[in-house]
Amino acid sequence: MFQPGFESADTSVTAAICLYGHYGHYFGDPPTEPPPPLQPQGYIHSGAPPFLVAHGTKYALATVEGAQNFVDQLRRASDTTVVYAELPGGQHAFDVFHSPRFEAVVDGAEAFAAWVLATAQRTPDPTR
Fold it and tell me: Can you tell me the distance from the alpha carbon of 105 to that of 88, in angstroms, rounded to the nearest whole number?
């Protein structure tokens, strides 16, 4: 869809894993309704892929409330699984240094990816 030269290839997103992202508002700004189209909320819809969102409570650039709001909106609109992991005390780039928190997030991301792949293999393709 967004990859010129690959029009005949399936470039759809199978799943999304989001670590400490910007989900539409920051520095305590309240979300806007309706969201601007270039913000993640502008892309929330029933056909969204499964999501894993991990966000720290001490992330200084994007509020935890922004992540919570994004997850809440996505869960209401999406027909697929939305997993949210809130990391107490977590800041941006918590994954730069090896830590128990980093290990837990990696384990969660691996389990989520394995579940998505296993689910995709069990789900028949309606176009075939």
Answer: 12
